[in-house]
Amino acid sequence: MQFHLNGFEPGDPTIADPARRDAGSGASGPLPQEVDVLIIGCGPAGLTLAAQLAAFPDIKTCIVEQKPGPLLRGQADGVACRTMEMFEAFGFSERVLKEACWINETTFWKPDDRVRENIVRSGRVQDTEDGLSEFPHVVLNQARVHDFYLDIMRKSPAALEPYYGRRLLDLEVDATLSGDDVNPHAVTVRVERVDAAHEGQIETIKARYVVGCDGARSVVRKSIGRALHGDSANRAWGVMDVLAVTDFPDVRFKTLIQSAKDGSMLIIPREGGYLFRLYIEIDKLDAGERVSNRNITSDDLIAAARRIFNPYKLDVKQVPWWSVYEIGQRLCDKFDDVSADNPARLPRVFIAGDACHTHSPKAGQGMNVSMQDGFNLGWKLASVLRKRSPSALLHTYSAERQAIAKELIDFDREWAEVLSSAAKSSATADGNGFDPAATQSYFVRHGRYTAGTAAQYQPSILTGDATYQHLAAGLTIGMRLHSAPVIRVADAKPIHLGHTVKADGRWRIFAFGGAEDPAAPHSGIGRLCHFLADAPQSPVRKFTPAGEDIDSVIDVRAIFQQSHHDLAVETMPGFLLPAKGRFGLRDYEKIFSADRRSGDIFSTRGIDRERGCMVVVRPDQYVAHVLPLDGFEQLAAFFNGFMM
Amino acid sequence: MQFHLNGFEPGDPTIADPARRDAGSGASGPLPQEVDVLIIGCGPAGLTLAAQLAAFPDIKTCIVEQKPGPLLRGQADGVACRTMEMFEAFGFSERVLKEACWINETTFWKPDDRVRENIVRSGRVQDTEDGLSEFPHVVLNQARVHDFYLDIMRKSPAALEPYYGRRLLDLEVDATLSGDDVNPHAVTVRVERVDAAHEGQIETIKARYVVGCDGARSVVRKSIGRALHGDSANRAWGVMDVLAVTDFPDVRFKTLIQSAKDGSMLIIPREGGYLFRLYIEIDKLDAGERVSNRNITSDDLIAAARRIFNPYKLDVKQVPWWSVYEIGQRLCDKFDDVSADNPARLPRVFIAGDACHTHSPKAGQGMNVSMQDGFNLGWKLASVLRKRSPSALLHTYSAERQAIAKELIDFDREWAEVLSSAAKSSATADGNGFDPAATQSYFVRHGRYTAGTAAQYQPSILTGDATYQHLAAGLTIGMRLHSAPVIRVADAKPIHLGHTVKADGRWRIFAFGGAEDPAAPHSGIGRLCHFLADAPQSPVRKFTPAGEDIDSVIDVRAIFQQSHHDLAVETMPGFLLPAKGRFGLRDYEKIFSADRRSGDIFSTRGIDRERGCMVVVRPDQYVAHVLPLDGFEQLAAFFNGFMM
Prior knowledge:
2 copies of one chain form a homodimer. Chain A is of the alpha+beta class.
């Protein structure tokens, strides 16, 4: 898709008339008085959380935002492979694939050895290593990511719309109501309306849970007495979206330029084929100096970009958005309101996204990690509010996401150092250079990190131990389910196994068949299905409410190594062809075979062909456990650990 | 995507609440008094035509429909590969891929040799041969195809909405105004409003062109004195969409069942994972007997299906839609109002879809061919109305589409015969059987036909001769452009070359480079670009209006056989990096290389590696010509044949 040719226009580019691209002005009327979950802030974390909660019509969610309406331009743009996998679960990956700019290769430029004030290309790498994900790394205006979430929310069972023009004043947790499992409306929140028509009106809302997705200056964070810790770095960067004419040949590649004397610049090509973004290094700030004191203008940024581009020309025609910021890697020590002196107290208030971790945007991680915060918290809140899990499950949010954020900050600091350091390398002659080869090597090594696929949760009630990891060596416990192609047996459709995991709050058990005849009554899959269907200790029996479909809490799917032509649905256990809904219609989408043409999942994911195994996958697509097919007790014990 | 579990619900299944799926009630107010094109009927042909014309804000189009609103259920469901390719050009293929049911394999069932009243599986074939198209064969409720078109129309520059509740009364062509190129509003149409609020109101509208997409009982057809010719076959079929429970194992495959004594049945699995369609043979009608006289009910169809299914059970829970019809392959001899005694007279009225060709639905062709009618006529009307082509271009619509429809009827009659004939084969013992092996073989041989990729236009002003066909042996002149993967050089994105062809009325020249260094100034591509950019006889120079982008009429793209790493955009002719729009931004999406990982297009499409070639592609994706890279004169002559 090509668009923005005659100037940047916000909104859905498939609507020809920009004036008809209204993304909706949100909910009207006053806030509800009482809700289950109140989300503060319509950024990536808040919208991911809201979209997840909107899937449950029995949960009353409210999301408020200080701005008068949806975001239209600017801010983040990187969408990592891992995020695309999550968008697939939310049901809009195909829209992003179509509209976004794909990052296919990254190129590196350095000073020309002959004429040091010129730059020359020093290298080129494939952006994402083969097989890392079934999705590419893409970039897209954050505003469009918001739009897709808003669309999903609107279409969801809860039909959720944000309340715009609301500024959080303060919140109070009634400690006397905390500490039990009935989820009282223990948090009282005061919000001020800031739109012209209602300016100054105060609204009070009571919530069982409040989630602060209100950015780096989070009021929620302050209200629970937490702070961001870390160095405020003394390095400033400018970021600028431009429509420009240049003879620089790599302007449609992600490109890192390190000039001899004018600093570094990162080029991010953007959606629509014409727009691109420049991250431009501004010279060092003095200790204590704030970038705002420099009075930097977009013309300053253009001038700096031109110096770095030498000998190439840059003729900027339009700057739809620009900003100047200081790099600051900062982190909260905890992402909820549970204090260290009373760690058993149940959390009532959470923070997510920039409210609890900030960082340089150059690793392209910010928006991505924030969305994973929201995805992590969303299903847990739903599980507790729907009485499927005890409230103690909510402790795992801070534990899991704080550790991941810390890793990100560490990675980000290191990466920023590599980008910025002008005196780091001993490999250059003048002592004022850098090491392009080292940068490129670093970039390649950290590809998995940047793709968002390196995150791993540590053992906990939600993450099993590695005793049986060898049965599925390529599906790492604690890491996101690495999807692979399979064939659906009932209709021979080639699909991605991971795409059966939707953002619907359900758990999955993927049962991989062993070497035996799958139709044999005592096959591993046959006995597992018998256990799951009939045994009193079966988590499926135990945790599925009466009257609901058998797969409504735990969705069990089987994958066989035989060709789909050698399998017969009519010989499969009835548990894998469940009768569902008011008519008792059969669900034919539970049985799969390896897809030998696209890569046999047993080979690519290291499944034990002799024994098979079970892979338990969380509602947020992370692998929770790997167990033998007959690991009935361990399976029951695992689910008993966090379900009720 | 799974849906319809608790009963069929029309509309967009991603909207959770069926009550919020309103697809729009169309345009309000009276009809305009004067339009360029008036389309009668919101079926597949009419909507394809309307969606094409809606791309041009300078064309005034009106589409009317007798029904009170959008179609909600029933009718056709087959979407051939070729149709998916067209949907890609219209910009909604990804939505259909996601929502539709994919037909991956077809199975065949026959009487059990041991127990003749039972059926057994006799064979299984892959539905679409490898490499036939980059898209699968899918099935989806015709109503949803309409919805996608309506959405495209709404978003298009012309922002088109149908006028519902309008019944065509009559039309009159003022012959005194015909025969010239100024496109007068020569057709006067009278329409009656049939909605309750305006019942009986008559509206008169004048149009330059009228297109009758008003179905098998077309009033437009009658008004221009044409008739459908052909046999009214004496064979009746029932069609029924069901939500049902069955132990028949292939209910999610397209399945052809031929029973020993109870006739044939075709199963079409449908979108959402639960719904399926049954086509059931009803016994022969007597000569002159109409199926309507039989008083067949849906219970009769269910009973017949149960007999054919023996020994499998069928428990029907819901019948969202059903119908009974006679097979009739019928065809008009001409698809416009130009009479044989005055063939040079310019056409003013056209007919498309079922209005000019009807047939059995079992080949799954009806909706597909009708849409191709609309696609064929759409760009031609736009080209004439926008004064890019003389009106005589419009003669090619009937010439091209009538020949294709005739081929379809012939194929369809043969196919229906194979399905229906119970006494045809000599291979069965009792003389009352059929030949499953012959049926299956027929099915395989005709796969390309069914996929819609076999259609070929004969040489004409729009279809060149085969002199240079050998330079691109796999891109057949007169057939649809068979896409293949390529790499976009400026950003290394893997894309499908054919997907650069959008439904925007533009012509394409794909210039494939020869063996020489592409950067050499006198390379074949270099000299072609020089000709196209500068020569007075260049069709690009000649036919592009002043002030419009250089690719607004003819879009030229180059494909090189070298790896994209061995190509440099900065060494390419400026013509391939055109400055566009009000800022003169560079378009980086004109230069491609072969994609060796996904199949080198030079090999898969038989491009002459030594000489290269030009492939000229029509706005409706058909290959118009293949010429040598230096075939400047032939290229100029070709475009001079139909452009002005």
